[in-house]
Amino acid sequence: MGIHLYRIDDRLIHGQVVVGWGQPLNARFMVLVDDLVASSDWEKELYRMAVPPGIEIFFADVDTAIRDHSRYESDPRPGILITGDITSMQRLVKAVKAIGSVNLGGIHHRAGRVPKLRYIFLTPEEENQLRAMESAGVEVTAQDVPSARSVPLAEVLEGESN
Amino acid sequence: MNDETGDAPRNPRAIVVGHGEFAGGLVSAVGQICGMADKLVVMSMMGMTPEDIESAIRAQLSSTGARVIFTDLPAGSATIAARRIVKDEPGLVLVSGVNLATLLDFVFNTSVPPTEAARAAAERGKASLIVVGR
After folding, report:
1. pLDDT by residue, tens only, chain A of 162 residues
2. Which residues contact B36 (CB under 8 A, 6 or more apart)?
3. Any residues with CB less than 8 A from the CB of B82 and at least 6 apart, and which?
């Protein structure tokens, strides 16, 4: 079992993750990798209360997630790992070298970002980070919910004809 | 977030926010049943960052004076944002998991403050769920 989905989503734990992906994957644990959340008891409690009974949630900063990755992967239950930004996932991917695919689930509009898909907006630097991930052998695709088409990175970067 | 009701509601008592068109549909149903949709502000969070969702809810609370927030899903982004706001403003009430029975009870209960009406409406909403059949 272990991690079935590595997802970048700036909303972190929310409906699409808990219900949209959690149900079909039968997720029984989630790993929320975020330096800010991991450092705040209030933030952790906020997200803990958003997770339904039957799903265990782990909080980790990126360094802890790197250290504990093998434990997540050897967990007998199916799980989902989420980061809120590309940089955190890139750090994880670089250090762990055992992550085969990354899902772009939601990176919304901010100053400097350009629309790529309805739910994906990227700065040029973020585009380069994603290209680097793929060059390192990680399959990067965008897919907000399981019923949607999985969009390859090259197509995502081409922009809004998708 | 978008105010999807067209004309601004008069003296709104609460904000309703949820996924997709959930809030607009629910408030539309309130309007169809009792004509009191103007007591509710509709907000959608489609395409927004968590920070934008929180800012938009704060802005609506400030501009309307509403003290109650209804959201659809406990795990949803709107609920997360609303919980952050309630933490900062203890006088607010958040009800997550809202349904039509909850909103109907809320808009009719004008004899008590909206925050109190919201608590009572939540109980009515819970009780409205029934299962029929084997």
Report:
1. 799 999 999 999 998 999 999 999 999 999 999 999 999 999 999 999 989 889 999 999 999 999 999 999 999 999 999 999 999 999 999 999 889 999 999 999 988 999 999 999 999 999 999 999 999 999 999 999 999 999 999 999 998 654
2. B30, B107, B108
3. B17, B57, B69, B71, B94, B96
Does residue A36 sit at the B interface (CB-CB below 8 Å)?
Answer: no
Structural domain count, chain B: 1
> Does the interface ipTM go beyond 0.90?
no
- Chain B partners of A42 at a C-beta cutoff of 8 Å? 87
Q: Please give the residue of chain B at the shortest CA–CA distance from A14.
A: B76
A136 vs A44, A100, A140, CA distance in Å? 32, 10, 11
**Domain count of chain A?**
1
Residue A145 belongs to a domain with what CATH number? 3.40.35.10
Cβ of B74 and A49 within 8 Å?
A: yes
Give the pair of three-digit tokens for residue B47.
């395409």
Q: Which residues span the domain enclosing B38?
A: 14-124
Contact A101, A138 (CB under 8 A): yes
Do residue A18 and residue B75 have CB atoms under 8 angstroms apart? yes
Selecting from A13, A108, A119 the residue whose C-beta is nearest the C-beta of B75 gives A13
